[in-house]
Design brief:
single chain, alpha/beta, two-stranded antiparallel sheet, 43% helix, elongated, WH_DNA-bd_sf, transcription, LysR family transcriptional regulator ArgP, LysR_subst-bd, WH-like_DNA-bd_sf
Length: 302
Protein backbone atom coordinates (compact mmCIF):
# COMPACT_ATOMS: atom_id res chain seq x y z
CA UNK A 1 0.00 0.00 0.00
CA UNK A 2 1.15 3.54 -0.71
CA UNK A 3 2.02 5.79 2.22
CA UNK A 4 0.23 9.04 1.43
CA UNK A 5 2.44 11.11 3.75
CA UNK A 6 5.35 10.19 1.51
CA UNK A 7 3.36 10.90 -1.64
CA UNK A 8 2.26 14.27 -0.25
CA UNK A 9 5.90 15.16 0.36
CA UNK A 10 6.73 14.32 -3.25
CA UNK A 11 3.81 16.37 -4.56
CA UNK A 12 4.59 19.42 -2.43
CA UNK A 13 8.31 19.40 -3.31
CA UNK A 14 7.44 19.38 -7.01
CA UNK A 15 4.63 21.93 -6.61
CA UNK A 16 6.86 24.31 -4.64
CA UNK A 17 9.91 23.78 -6.84
CA UNK A 18 12.32 22.62 -4.14
CA UNK A 19 12.88 20.92 -0.80
CA UNK A 20 13.24 24.13 1.22
CA UNK A 21 9.97 25.67 0.00
CA UNK A 22 8.26 22.28 0.21
CA UNK A 23 9.33 21.88 3.83
CA UNK A 24 8.06 25.36 4.69
CA UNK A 25 4.70 24.56 3.06
CA UNK A 26 4.35 21.33 5.07
CA UNK A 27 5.57 22.87 8.32
CA UNK A 28 8.46 20.37 8.50
CA UNK A 29 12.23 20.63 8.43
CA UNK A 30 13.98 20.25 5.11
CA UNK A 31 15.73 17.16 6.49
CA UNK A 32 12.38 15.54 7.38
CA UNK A 33 11.01 16.11 3.88
CA UNK A 34 14.20 14.76 2.33
CA UNK A 35 13.92 11.63 4.50
CA UNK A 36 10.31 11.08 3.33
CA UNK A 37 11.38 11.23 -0.32
CA UNK A 38 14.30 8.85 0.35
CA UNK A 39 11.98 6.44 2.17
CA UNK A 40 9.52 6.51 -0.73
CA UNK A 41 12.34 5.77 -3.18
CA UNK A 42 13.65 2.97 -0.96
CA UNK A 43 10.22 1.30 -0.79
CA UNK A 44 9.71 1.58 -4.54
CA UNK A 45 13.26 0.54 -5.40
CA UNK A 46 13.85 3.42 -7.81
CA UNK A 47 14.11 7.23 -7.78
CA UNK A 48 11.06 9.47 -8.00
CA UNK A 49 12.99 12.75 -8.41
CA UNK A 50 15.91 13.95 -10.48
CA UNK A 51 17.82 16.36 -8.23
CA UNK A 52 20.21 17.96 -10.74
CA UNK A 53 20.62 20.00 -12.86
CA UNK A 54 16.97 20.91 -12.23
CA UNK A 55 14.54 19.30 -9.80
CA UNK A 56 12.00 17.26 -11.78
CA UNK A 57 10.03 14.02 -11.38
CA UNK A 58 11.20 10.79 -12.97
CA UNK A 59 8.73 8.81 -15.13
CA UNK A 60 7.71 6.90 -11.96
CA UNK A 61 7.45 10.19 -10.10
CA UNK A 62 5.11 11.56 -12.77
CA UNK A 63 2.83 8.54 -12.44
CA UNK A 64 2.68 9.03 -8.68
CA UNK A 65 1.94 12.75 -9.10
CA UNK A 66 -0.94 11.94 -11.46
CA UNK A 67 -2.31 9.63 -8.77
CA UNK A 68 -1.92 12.28 -6.04
CA UNK A 69 -3.77 14.88 -8.13
CA UNK A 70 -6.75 12.59 -8.55
CA UNK A 71 -6.76 11.47 -4.91
CA UNK A 72 -6.81 15.11 -3.74
CA UNK A 73 -9.86 15.82 -5.89
CA UNK A 74 -11.70 12.69 -4.75
CA UNK A 75 -10.90 13.43 -1.10
CA UNK A 76 -12.54 16.82 -1.39
CA UNK A 77 -15.69 15.21 -2.79
CA UNK A 78 -15.74 12.89 0.23
CA UNK A 79 -15.33 15.80 2.66
CA UNK A 80 -18.31 17.53 1.02
CA UNK A 81 -20.45 14.44 1.62
CA UNK A 82 -19.12 13.69 5.15
CA UNK A 83 -18.44 17.07 6.83
CA UNK A 84 -17.44 15.31 10.08
CA UNK A 85 -14.20 14.26 8.41
CA UNK A 86 -13.06 17.88 8.57
CA UNK A 87 -12.68 20.85 6.29
CA UNK A 88 -10.27 21.19 3.44
CA UNK A 89 -9.64 23.99 1.01
CA UNK A 90 -10.50 23.08 -2.57
CA UNK A 91 -7.75 24.18 -4.91
CA UNK A 92 -7.55 23.25 -8.58
CA UNK A 93 -4.17 23.44 -10.26
CA UNK A 94 -4.62 24.09 -13.97
CA UNK A 95 -2.45 24.99 -16.95
CA UNK A 96 -3.83 27.66 -19.26
CA UNK A 97 -2.48 29.66 -22.17
CA UNK A 98 -1.84 33.36 -21.58
CA UNK A 99 -4.23 34.57 -24.30
CA UNK A 100 -7.15 32.67 -22.78
CA UNK A 101 -6.28 34.09 -19.37
CA UNK A 102 -6.20 37.61 -20.83
CA UNK A 103 -9.56 37.29 -22.61
CA UNK A 104 -12.26 34.75 -21.83
CA UNK A 105 -11.13 32.66 -18.84
CA UNK A 106 -11.97 35.06 -15.98
CA UNK A 107 -15.46 36.11 -17.14
CA UNK A 108 -16.25 32.48 -17.93
CA UNK A 109 -15.07 30.87 -14.69
CA UNK A 110 -15.55 33.66 -12.13
CA UNK A 111 -19.12 32.78 -11.20
CA UNK A 112 -18.28 29.07 -11.00
CA UNK A 113 -15.41 29.63 -8.56
CA UNK A 114 -17.57 31.87 -6.35
CA UNK A 115 -20.43 29.37 -6.22
CA UNK A 116 -18.23 26.32 -5.67
CA UNK A 117 -15.76 28.00 -3.31
CA UNK A 118 -12.88 26.88 -5.51
CA UNK A 119 -9.43 28.46 -5.49
CA UNK A 120 -7.36 28.23 -8.67
CA UNK A 121 -3.64 27.66 -8.92
CA UNK A 122 -2.95 28.66 -12.53
CA UNK A 123 0.19 27.84 -14.50
CA UNK A 124 0.57 29.89 -17.66
CA UNK A 125 1.81 27.87 -20.64
CA UNK A 126 1.64 28.20 -24.40
CA UNK A 127 -1.38 26.36 -25.81
CA UNK A 128 0.94 24.03 -27.74
CA UNK A 129 2.83 22.76 -24.67
CA UNK A 130 0.35 22.94 -21.75
CA UNK A 131 -0.50 19.24 -22.11
CA UNK A 132 3.01 18.37 -20.91
CA UNK A 133 2.01 19.67 -17.48
CA UNK A 134 -0.76 17.06 -17.31
CA UNK A 135 1.51 14.33 -18.60
CA UNK A 136 3.97 15.22 -15.83
CA UNK A 137 1.24 15.05 -13.19
CA UNK A 138 1.51 18.73 -12.27
CA UNK A 139 -2.08 19.81 -13.03
CA UNK A 140 -5.60 18.41 -12.90
CA UNK A 141 -6.66 20.07 -16.16
CA UNK A 142 -5.37 22.27 -18.94
CA UNK A 143 -6.32 24.35 -21.96
CA UNK A 144 -4.29 23.43 -25.02
CA UNK A 145 -4.41 23.13 -28.80
CA UNK A 146 -3.96 19.35 -28.81
CA UNK A 147 -7.10 17.23 -29.26
CA UNK A 148 -5.76 13.87 -28.04
CA UNK A 149 -5.70 13.41 -24.26
CA UNK A 150 -3.01 11.74 -22.19
CA UNK A 151 -3.76 8.32 -20.73
CA UNK A 152 -6.43 8.51 -18.05
CA UNK A 153 -7.82 11.86 -19.21
CA UNK A 154 -10.59 13.24 -21.41
CA UNK A 155 -10.51 16.10 -23.92
CA UNK A 156 -13.37 18.36 -25.07
CA UNK A 157 -13.37 20.91 -27.89
CA UNK A 158 -14.21 24.37 -26.53
CA UNK A 159 -13.95 26.43 -29.70
CA UNK A 160 -11.32 28.53 -31.44
CA UNK A 161 -9.56 31.82 -30.81
CA UNK A 162 -9.22 33.97 -33.92
CA UNK A 163 -5.87 35.70 -34.34
CA UNK A 164 -5.14 38.58 -36.69
CA UNK A 165 -1.93 40.38 -37.68
CA UNK A 166 -2.10 43.63 -35.72
CA UNK A 167 0.07 46.77 -35.53
CA UNK A 168 -0.16 50.48 -34.80
CA UNK A 169 -0.92 52.89 -37.69
CA UNK A 170 2.50 54.52 -37.29
CA UNK A 171 4.25 51.17 -37.49
CA UNK A 172 2.36 50.31 -40.68
CA UNK A 173 3.39 53.62 -42.23
CA UNK A 174 7.04 53.02 -41.42
CA UNK A 175 7.34 49.37 -42.40
CA UNK A 176 4.47 48.42 -44.71
CA UNK A 177 3.83 51.55 -46.76
CA UNK A 178 4.05 49.41 -49.92
CA UNK A 179 2.14 46.46 -48.44
CA UNK A 180 3.20 43.16 -46.90
CA UNK A 181 5.96 42.48 -49.39
CA UNK A 182 8.62 39.84 -48.72
CA UNK A 183 11.25 42.54 -48.47
CA UNK A 184 9.19 44.37 -45.84
CA UNK A 185 8.54 41.16 -43.88
CA UNK A 186 12.27 40.44 -43.90
CA UNK A 187 13.02 43.77 -42.19
CA UNK A 188 9.96 44.59 -40.06
CA UNK A 189 10.27 43.61 -36.36
CA UNK A 190 7.59 41.17 -35.28
CA UNK A 191 6.42 40.29 -31.76
CA UNK A 192 6.49 36.63 -30.69
CA UNK A 193 5.19 35.31 -27.38
CA UNK A 194 8.08 32.91 -26.73
CA UNK A 195 10.38 30.29 -28.24
CA UNK A 196 7.55 27.72 -28.37
CA UNK A 197 5.15 30.10 -30.14
CA UNK A 198 4.86 29.18 -33.83
CA UNK A 199 1.85 31.36 -34.66
CA UNK A 200 3.89 34.09 -36.36
CA UNK A 201 5.67 31.47 -38.45
CA UNK A 202 2.35 29.99 -39.53
CA UNK A 203 1.09 33.41 -40.59
CA UNK A 204 4.22 34.15 -42.63
CA UNK A 205 3.98 30.75 -44.30
CA UNK A 206 0.43 31.67 -45.34
CA UNK A 207 2.03 34.56 -47.17
CA UNK A 208 4.62 32.22 -48.76
CA UNK A 209 7.39 33.74 -46.63
CA UNK A 210 9.72 31.14 -45.06
CA UNK A 211 12.86 33.13 -44.26
CA UNK A 212 14.04 34.41 -40.88
CA UNK A 213 12.67 37.68 -39.50
CA UNK A 214 13.60 40.08 -36.66
CA UNK A 215 11.38 39.76 -33.61
CA UNK A 216 10.87 40.73 -29.99
CA UNK A 217 10.10 37.99 -27.43
CA UNK A 218 7.31 39.00 -25.03
CA UNK A 219 5.86 36.24 -22.80
CA UNK A 220 2.86 38.33 -21.69
CA UNK A 221 -0.44 38.79 -23.51
CA UNK A 222 -0.96 42.25 -22.04
CA UNK A 223 2.66 43.20 -22.72
CA UNK A 224 2.28 41.92 -26.29
CA UNK A 225 -0.51 44.42 -26.90
CA UNK A 226 1.43 47.24 -25.24
CA UNK A 227 4.42 46.61 -27.53
CA UNK A 228 2.13 46.78 -30.56
CA UNK A 229 0.55 50.03 -29.28
CA UNK A 230 4.03 51.48 -28.81
CA UNK A 231 4.82 50.80 -32.48
CA UNK A 232 7.59 48.33 -31.65
CA UNK A 233 6.34 45.52 -33.85
CA UNK A 234 3.43 43.63 -35.38
CA UNK A 235 2.10 40.30 -34.26
CA UNK A 236 -0.73 37.79 -34.11
CA UNK A 237 -3.19 38.93 -31.42
CA UNK A 238 -6.64 37.52 -30.52
CA UNK A 239 -9.17 39.85 -32.10
CA UNK A 240 -11.32 39.72 -28.92
CA UNK A 241 -8.40 41.13 -26.94
CA UNK A 242 -8.03 44.29 -29.04
CA UNK A 243 -11.61 45.06 -30.11
CA UNK A 244 -11.56 48.49 -28.43
CA UNK A 245 -8.12 49.44 -29.79
CA UNK A 246 -9.18 48.48 -33.32
CA UNK A 247 -12.44 50.40 -32.98
CA UNK A 248 -10.59 53.50 -31.74
CA UNK A 249 -7.98 53.28 -34.49
CA UNK A 250 -5.04 52.85 -32.10
CA UNK A 251 -4.33 49.50 -33.73
CA UNK A 252 -5.07 48.28 -37.24
CA UNK A 253 -5.52 44.92 -38.93
CA UNK A 254 -2.66 44.44 -41.42
CA UNK A 255 -4.48 41.85 -43.47
CA UNK A 256 -8.27 41.90 -43.13
CA UNK A 257 -8.71 38.85 -45.37
CA UNK A 258 -6.36 36.61 -43.40
CA UNK A 259 -6.58 35.15 -39.90
CA UNK A 260 -5.62 32.05 -37.98
CA UNK A 261 -8.14 30.14 -35.87
CA UNK A 262 -6.46 28.24 -33.03
CA UNK A 263 -8.65 25.43 -31.64
CA UNK A 264 -8.70 25.08 -27.86
CA UNK A 265 -9.39 21.88 -25.96
CA UNK A 266 -10.12 21.35 -22.28
CA UNK A 267 -8.31 18.31 -20.84
CA UNK A 268 -9.09 16.87 -17.42
CA UNK A 269 -8.54 13.66 -15.50
CA UNK A 270 -11.22 11.06 -16.13
CA UNK A 271 -11.60 10.27 -12.41
CA UNK A 272 -11.06 13.80 -11.12
CA UNK A 273 -14.11 14.06 -8.89
CA UNK A 274 -17.31 16.08 -8.86
CA UNK A 275 -15.72 19.54 -8.84
CA UNK A 276 -13.63 18.87 -11.93
CA UNK A 277 -16.67 17.37 -13.68
CA UNK A 278 -18.73 20.45 -12.76
CA UNK A 279 -16.02 22.78 -14.10
CA UNK A 280 -15.96 20.80 -17.34
CA UNK A 281 -19.73 21.15 -17.80
CA UNK A 282 -19.50 24.86 -16.99
CA UNK A 283 -16.72 25.48 -19.52
CA UNK A 284 -18.57 23.61 -22.28
CA UNK A 285 -21.69 25.67 -21.57
CA UNK A 286 -20.11 29.13 -21.21
CA UNK A 287 -17.10 29.21 -23.56
CA UNK A 288 -19.30 29.54 -26.66
CA UNK A 289 -19.98 33.18 -25.71
CA UNK A 290 -16.29 33.99 -26.20
CA UNK A 291 -14.86 31.48 -28.67
CA UNK A 292 -15.58 30.62 -32.28
CA UNK A 293 -17.70 27.42 -32.53
CA UNK A 294 -15.67 24.19 -32.62
CA UNK A 295 -15.47 22.45 -35.96
CA UNK A 296 -17.91 19.53 -36.52
CA UNK A 297 -15.08 16.97 -36.33
CA UNK A 298 -13.99 18.26 -32.89
CA UNK A 299 -15.78 15.68 -30.76
CA UNK A 300 -14.92 14.79 -27.14
CA UNK A 301 -12.10 12.27 -26.93
CA UNK A 302 -12.29 9.66 -24.19
Amino acid sequence: MLDYKLLEALAVVVDQGGFERGAHHLGLTQSAVSQRIKLLEARLGQPVLVRTPKLSPTPLGRRLLNHVQQVRLLEHDLLDKIPALGEREQRLRLAINADSLATWWSPTTGDFCRRQGVLLDLIVEDQDVALKRMRDGEVAGCICATPRPVQGARAHALGSMRYRAIASPGYVSRHFSEGLTHDALRKAPAIVFGPDDRLQHRYLEMRAYKESFPHHLCPSSEGFVHLALAGMGYGLIPERQVERELREGRLVDLDADSYIDVPLYWHHWRHGGDTLDALTAHLLDMSSAWLMPPSPESQPLL
